[in-house]
Amino acid sequence: MENYLGALTNEIYDHGGLAGKETGLPCPSSLMLGVFVTMLPKLVPRILPFFMNNDTPGLKAKFDDPNYLQEGEQMFKDKFSENLQMVEDIISSVGNDNQLEKKSSEYTGFKKFLLGSLEALDINVSDYLGGLEVDSIRKLARIARGEDVYSPYYTMAADALLAVGSYLYQSMFP
Fold it and tell me: Per the confidence metrics, is the pTM higher than 0.90?
């Protein structure tokens, strides 16, 4: 993966051989992506109660359940991985001539809905899928499932960021 952070900030990062393919360390953009993808399932169950500000006792009891965060995080990981698998299936179904090998009627579930909606709008999905690489989607799915080589480091960084954010939020809004 290229160093998009260097191109974005217009800086030249000279790590003196400490980062890169020689040492096996990820580039800064891969590190940021890994931390973000790891932090997203941890963050969503924590902020969801603020968006669903409802005084119904059933909803409050659900959010107060001690297992809510773990179940919500696991559910988000599963759905995120499932959606990435769907994108991978769609990309891999593009033929050699950049045309979808199957029509939307041959799919089931959400894939059928998504591709059917795009066909109804006369949008050719193949135009957008030609440059996508399946390997990048697979790597993102591995990171989302926690199966990447650097997943323990991403988890530590995401937990540290969440702890700092929680501390700041609790100290500012007691």
Answer: no
Rounded to whole angstroms, the Cα distance separating 94 from 165 reads: 42
b/e code 139-154 from CB counts within 10 Å (16+ = b): bbbbbbeeebebbebb
Note whether 139 and 82 are within 8 A (CB).
no
What size, in residues, is the chain? 174
| Separation CA 117–CA 129 (nearest Å) | 16
Q: In a 3-state reduction of DSSP, which class is residue 45?
A: helix
- What tens digit of pLDDT does each residue of 145-170 get? 888 889 999 999 999 999 999 999 89
Q: Are 131 and 124 in contact (CB under 8 A)?
A: no
Task: Evaluate whether 29 touches 4 at the Cβ level (below 8 Å).
Answer: yes
